[in-house]
Amino acid sequence: MVTVPAIFILGASALPLARQIKEALGGEIHCPSCVSGPDRSYEKATSALQSLFRDGRTIVALCASGIVVRALAPVLEDKRREPPVLVLAEDGSSVVPLLGGHHGANELARRIAIFTRGHAAITTASDLRFGAALDDPPEGWVLANPQDMKDFAARLLADEKVAIAGELPWLDLPMSPEAALTVTATHRSVSGSPAHLVYHPKVLALGVGGERGVAAAELIGLVEETLAQHGLAKSSLALITSIDLKEDEAAIAALCGHLGLPLRVFTAGELNAQASRLKTPSPVVMSEVGCPGVAEGAALAATGPRSELIVAKTKSKRATCAIAMSPKPLTDLAGRRRGTVSLIGLGPGDKAMRSPEASEALRRATDWVGYGLYLDLAQDVRTGQPEHRFPLGAEEDRVRYAIALAREGRQVALVCSGDPGIYAMAALVYELLDLEPARIAVEVLPGISAFQAAAARAGAMIGHDFCCVSLSDLLTPWEVIEKRVEAAARGDFVTAFYNPRSLKRRDQLDRAIAILKPERRPETPVIIASNLGRPEETVRIVALKDFDTKVVDMLTLVMVGSSQSRSFRRGDGQTYAYTPRGYAKKRQH
């Protein structure tokens, strides 16, 4: 599958062609850090190529093919899952699909060759002989029996003839009515074999409806039974569709997951436009949701004015479904997607400390929302999404904006530093949804929080019970904060202080330390960690008796050990802090 391409170059001489490819295909340009002006920079070409490949990125490399071959050889595993990889001469004269020829690389090579006026060096036999890869049909088509393709292709290459049933305009095969080989194009459920390839066009839309709270098993069972009863191929389903009131219905989400299909929804007004085409309009449904039919109307709306309702509304006790067929494969889906707010934790800032899940969510988002500094920290994975930047302190504004975008069907990345559930935006998103319900999806992608990073850099301070306390009194009264610090002191918790100081708050940290001191040894280790995960990072360990709060600023996290925490110097000259879990007692027995 072709993803947004990473255009990979080794030097400034390739930039003009790289920019031309970016303008035509999108994506971003990756080049060495010594070259100015790229979208992304790297230090080592081999590591950068391997990282892109492991992430499933389509790679378009403007360099010698040998460089890419040697870089990727150690990470090649499964050709059925690996992304397309192409190499281009720096003058664009040759475009070579190295990997993924049957997964979009050949077609992408042809596209690039058109605007570079070069030559697409296609080497796969089926493309050369028949104009297409048999196991990589065009968008909107699915090969139902890929396991038979190898034997079928071998017989084709041995000049056996083919009979074609149905319309396959993208294939140029040696045909004969009496042939031993057959290729079928159909939306019906048909079995294939090594002598019979079956292609399903994605021409069907599955409309669904039902009562709120219907069980997933009931809806899935209804759909499975309906498809079987009418002999329809699941692979010909292009989407699941319904009225927008159902976009957060758990059973529909389960059905989408079960069939691996996207959901698109329509308003009651849009479904009303299909009223004259319904086979089973219902006045009851009209009175309840504002249109005379959900399942039939949604299926017809999704397939367009020239479509046909091939399965009228079918009912179970609490669910309904209907199926409409488009005259051509459905590639640009009508309707609105269910919007999503993805709360993404970047970690401390270093991209190496960001989870692959978070990076992938950033890439697939349609919009980025967040504090400007946080968006800057994620630019290495941005693929052209519009950014909606907010100043520090405008937390509710940015959350409301993200929710508003999601209501429009956008896939929104709400970017947070650290972990979005720890002193960040996740709680505020749920708080606002609790006050003002919306049918959007929400996902929280955790990140490494500052207290975890600080403890790891300094040793293992949180090896036993710990707590985190924010010293900011902007949203929490100081009296409440003070009680929590007192409880942490009495409970002998390792205590991490977030927001220890700002331009206006100068004395809260001093007061917090004063509360802890009577309950701690003077030698208790204190970690002072600033700018974690960023080039200016500093991490120091001092004894509590020597801790000077004046060295702390708003980008610092302070962690004070418990009465059991210890620090010591190792042979490398570095001091490390840890809090024992209690294994010493086990060693004594």
Number of helical segments with 4 or more residues: 19
Category from helices, strands and their pairing: alpha/beta
Mean pLDDT: 92
Describe the global form.
globular
Q: Could you give the count of β-strands?
A: 29
Under the CATH scheme, the architecture of the largest domain is 2-Layer Sandwich
Strand order of the largest sheet: 3-2-1-4-5-6-7
Distance between the termini: 59 Å
Give the biggest beta sheet.
7 strands, mixed
Number of domains: 5
Q: What portion of the residues fall into strands of 2 or more residues?
A: 15-25%
What is the level 1 CATH name of the largest domain? Alpha Beta
Q: Can you put this structure into words, describing what you see?
A:
The chain has 19 helices and 29 strands. It is globular and about 95 Å long. The chain is of the alpha/beta class. The chain has five domains: 6-123, Rossmann fold (3-Layer(aba) Sandwich); 141-201, no CATH class; 204-325, CobE/GbiG C-terminal domain (Nucleotidyltransferase, domain 5), CATH 3.30.420.180; 340-448, Cobalt-precorrin-4 Transmethylase, domain 1 (3-Layer(aba) Sandwich); 451-583, Tetrapyrrole methylase, C-terminal domain (Methyltransferase, Cobalt-precorrin-4 Transmethylase, Domain 2, 2-Layer Sandwich), CATH 3.30.950. The mean pLDDT is 92. The protein has a seven-stranded mixed β-sheet with strand order 3-2-1-4-5-6-7. 30% of the residues lie in helices and 24% in strands.
